[in-house]
Amino acid sequence: MKQLPAEWKSERIIISDVEEYEIPEIQSICNTSRYLQQWDGREHDPDYVKKCVEEGNLPPGGKLQNYRIQSIRTTEENRIMGLLSMYHGYPSEDSVYLEFLYIQSDIQKQGYGQEMIQALSFHLSSLGYREIRINVALKNWPALRFWIKSGFNQISGIYGDSEHSDTTFANTELIKTL
Predict the structure, then answer these.
(1) Which of 41, 74, 120, 123 is a Cys-bridge partner for 169, taking CB atoms 3.0 to 4.6 Å apart?
(2) CATH number of the domain at 7-177, out of 3.50.50.60, 3.30.70.1250, 3.30.830.10, 3.40.630.30?
(3) Which residues form the N-acetyltransferase domain (predicted)?
(4) How far apart are CA 105 and CA 109, in angstroms?
(5) Residue 60 CB contacts under 8 Å (≥ 6 apart), including other chains
């Protein structure tokens, strides 16, 4: 199975495999996403990045070699500004599942996310993948707007609690055809 290279670029960003020495800084960036808990109900994991590097965050029956966690940096300052994790070949061989994408809040709304998704789509398409999937919390309206604007315009399902309340949560799986 073909996978994204260990490092790839777009005009303003560099995306590369997370190195062990980067884990504390990337975890610190990841910690700034804790506000997402109010929308998805997941507990914060202070060792999320380390676990992803060592074990991956795999789908049922998944293999570590198909998983990738990468840092997102600015080309201009080489500053780490986010992270991307994905699984190649789930739920089908020609699919890539985005497990997590986060760009620091102070850098959001500057077009980096859209640029990253455009570059990612181009690279994955050139490798023969036909779709990208992502799971988004229904309460996360900013993310839903971002993903729909990025071309994730198919819904494959809604999962989670059937009733809406402050303590219930549901997600939708969005698909972008390449």
Answers:
(1) 41
(2) 3.40.630.30
(3) 13-178
(4) 8
(5) none
